[in-house]
Amino acid sequence: MSRLQKQADGRKKQAALGRTQARSHRDKSKSNRVSSSPPLWRLIHYGHNYRTQIWQAIACSILNKIFDLAPPVLIGAAVDVVVKQQDSLIAQWGVKDIFGQLLILSFLSFIIWGLESIFEYAYARLWRNLAQAIQHDLRLDAYGHLQSLELAYFEDRSTGRLMSILSDDINQLERFLDVGANDIIQVITTAIVIGGAFYILAPNVAWMTIVPIPFILWGSIAFQRRLAPRYADVREKVSLINGQLANNLTGITTIKSFTAEEYELGRIEAQSDAYRVSNKRAIALSAAFIPLIRMLILLGFTGILLYGGMDVVAGSLEVGTYSVLVFLTQRLLWPLTRLGETLDQYQRAMASTTRVMNLLDTPIEIHSGDTPLQVEQVRGEVLLKEVTFAYHDRAPVIHNLSLHIGAGKTIAIVGSTGSGKSTLVKLLLRLYEVQRGTITLDGIDLRQLRLKDLRRAIGLVSQDVFLFHGTVWENIAYGTFDATHAEVMAAAEIAEAHEFISQLPQGYDTIVGERGQKLSGGQQQRIAIARAILKNPPILILDEATSAVDNETEAAIQRSLEKITKNRTTIAIAHRLSTVRNADCIYVMEHGKLVEQGRHEQLLEQQGIYSSLWRVQSGIK
């Protein structure tokens, strides 16, 4: 390759990295703009795809409330017919017969009640289906975004806290959309319709009903502002309880073995009590809302009752109109008592919305590159050049590290605990991003490659095997979901797992339990190896794959590894030097630096760190 061509390739790589960094900056800027908005606006912004359903639901809620407010008018008209008879309002339409007038009112009642029922059914379906749809999409978007976040995000947060957001907070939002949104719309509709009717029918006494409303609204807003931080604290306490419960259920074996049941029960009791106290503070405020509102409503109702009645006696107000006003006053003011419950739901929902939206606004630090990678064409040459990496707020664990892994070669990385061996695995998979230096695969910077393609090209067998709750077959086929039963069995045979699987109660259909707890450590390890074999990656990483098994199982695993490491790049991280003595090259790391390299025999001759480790493990003095 000419010098000019190399320079051109270098410029292309730098441009690709620049695009990745710019995309990350744009995502962060967008996140900062959205996250500063009120939670309700953020929810509305999220639900913009449901505009049609939202407007339909709002229209049905408004129409239902309008028809719900019509019966008091019919009652007033009926009183007008009974009192005025041939001089009633309906009689002015040409129907003088009293029975005919009442028949018309009965017919209108059927129509109004029917329409009210139809629109109630419509808004209930629309709001509930809308709540389910947004809940479904929000949970999928939140979980999908969560999967895209870097590994450091999960290491800084408890599983229970994240579970609380994905489950409890999103469910809380669904409950508000089910009921609370409709209640708010109908209260607003009631105030507008009845307020307008009052000014048309009796403007001289309408103000008596309207006067309490500003105080009610002011009180509602004041309660809302005071309730908001209390419900935010409630949501926080819920996440802490969920985190502790999830942690305890995962570590139940440790709890039992150390007879720590009472201690853990005490911790749960303390957190549950903190949640109870937090809720108690919120309840103390929200419970006072309705009694106070009742007193304000009483003022308006009493005013209409007294002054309206005196106007009737004075002849300035019709009896029928007075009946309508009395009923409408109650219909206007009484629903406002539900503002307390509605605000309660609203504040809980907004506290949950803030937590969910903050999760969605969390910027993705590790972005996929644009360069595709055909797995079958990967040679597997890996080059680390002056790589430096440090975990957040910690000293660097890898310092200016450079090493070469030839295509199709088997190399080993050894060293004491904390030397940075497992961190290299995370950097190769781009679970973390290097802070300085570059890592290339077949000459291409990892940051330029499509993330999915990169990870498809790498098979990882870790010391900490994770098996999902499901069958043996499902766990072997995990990641290669289109594999046939014959392919799964062939992979199990190479991994020397077929024999013990066949002896399980249901064979390949045996449920392994959560995290594979029904299987021994060696059995779990061999299933993990079978899973990697089935994936058939050009690069295989063995991270302490035999450190937690007995000698017999280790021998079985070694036999299977000898088969699967042929014709592929293999990176073995190991404490047991006997498992990597035949590697093409052994790299020795110490405090994040490369201190020795060579084949087994060469390293023994150097009389360095590797030689010392070998003598300790082999019992040579």
Automatic annotation (TrEMBL):
Q: Does this entry carry the keyword S-adenosyl-L-methionine?
A: no
Domain ABC transporter, chain residue ranges per copy: 382-616
Its Gene Ontology cellular component terms are: plasma membrane
Q: Where is the ABC transmembrane type-1 domain?
A: 55-348
UniProt entry keywords in alphabetical sequence: ATP-binding, Membrane, Nucleotide-binding, Transmembrane, Transmembrane helix, Transport
Spell out the molecular function terms from Gene Ontology: ABC-type oligopeptide transporter activity; ATP binding; ATP hydrolysis activity
Subcellular location(s) per record: Cell membrane
Transmembrane region positions?
98-119, 184-201, 207-223, 282-306
What is this entry's stated membrane topology? Multi-pass membrane protein
* Record's keyword annotation contains Nucleotide-binding: yes
Ranges annotated as biased composition (Basic and acidic residues): 1-12
Q: Where is the stretch described as Disordered?
A: 1-36
Q: Which InterPro entries match?
A: AAA+_ATPase (IPR003593), ABC1_TM_dom (IPR011527), ABC1_TM_sf (IPR036640), ABC_transporter-like_ATP-bd (IPR003439), ABC_transporter-like_CS (IPR017871), P-loop_NTPase (IPR027417), Type_1_exporter (IPR039421)
* Protein name per its UniProtKB record: ABC-type multidrug transport system, ATPase and permease component
Protein's organism: Allocoleopsis franciscana PCC 7113
